[in-house]
Amino acid sequence: MKTVLITGAAGFLGSHLCDRFIKEGYKVIGMDNLITGSLKNIEHLFSLENFEFYQHDVTKFVHVSDDLDYILHFASPASPIDYLKIPIQTLKVGAMGTHNLLGLAKAKNARILVASTSEVYGDPQVHPQKEEYWGHVNPVGPRGVYDEAKRYMEAITMAYHTFHSVETRIIRIFNTYGPRMRLNDGRVLPAFIGQALRGEDLTVFGDGSQTRSFCYVDDLVEGIYRLLLSDYASPVNIGNPNEITIGDFAEEIIQLTGTDQQVIYKPLPTDDPTQRQPDISKAQEILDWEPKVDRSEGLKLTYEYFLTLSKEELHKKDHNNFDGYIKR
Ligand code: UDP
What we know:
Helix content: 25-40%
CATH class of the largest domain: Alpha Beta
Number of helices: 10
Distance between the termini: 47 Å
Low-confidence stretches: 323-328
Order of helices and strands: EHEEEHHEHEEHEEEHEEHEHHH
Radius of gyration: 19 Å
Largest sheet: 7 strands, parallel
CATH topology of the largest domain: Rossmann fold
Bound molecules: uridine-5'-diphosphate
Strand order of the largest sheet: 3-2-1-4-5-6-11
Oligomer: single chain
Shape: globular
Structural class: alpha/beta
CATH architecture of the largest domain: 3-Layer(aba) Sandwich
Mean pLDDT: 95
Number of domains: 2
Strand content: 15-25%
């Protein structure tokens, strides 16, 4: 049985990865410090013999006694609201956390895949974004803590690859959605669905003309799985190229939920990218991968998940564990 360590295991993507690797017959060791993750996302795995969980902050030395075949580094706050609240932890997990896990990969002779992001392209001046594009990032803006940490992550990962011959994989993840997204993490999809379910107006930032391209989580997980098993060490975009304006997206959520509420407009956050769409030709060519779930189907599945949340959860302002991390 092969063994995989998944950091950020209690988060949205990490928990779906745990499910996938369990399904593939791996022993899965999950790790999370639970700042933004929730045990609820993985509690269904606790009774399994081939699943273990450690509550640990990967910015501190990471010890695992098992032999490891693979490491998937998915620990990081990942929404603009989160990294505004915990900027230092965001920087540390991308930088020191990645360093620790690369060291672990080297010591265990394991292959490591790190979760990078379309944010390395910043507010892109090239459209759609190809892996060869170097980006347009403001290092000292509010998103700088995330964008630069992920850029550093890519740099140190390549350095371990070339200097220490560690087997590394880098995925650049574009906007992804699905069940287990945190309702109040500030991202646009849970924000809109939460507002619709609470009977509030939908808040579109700016004039709603900015675009995003949303990928359903199962498609993303398939892309990650294929990239991990490939022999390709340079970054690969994984995302769904189907691009939509945020204004139109709000209309889709209004249709989906049948809410009577309307769209209201709020100021556009600083450095909010105006356009984002992945060029996925590399993933198509190297991994024979492309997304299969279209947005109407994916949104339906995601909405069904949000409908299972209790009234209490729906009205909680924030259900993450920031205590002790935010300056009040
Ligand atoms: N957005 C919005 N209303 C919200 C939350 C987000 O209009 O309540 C916009 C946000 O300004 C951005 C887009 O939706 O243009 C996607 O935001 P998200 O935070 O989901 O991810 P990003 O791609 O910006 O990291």
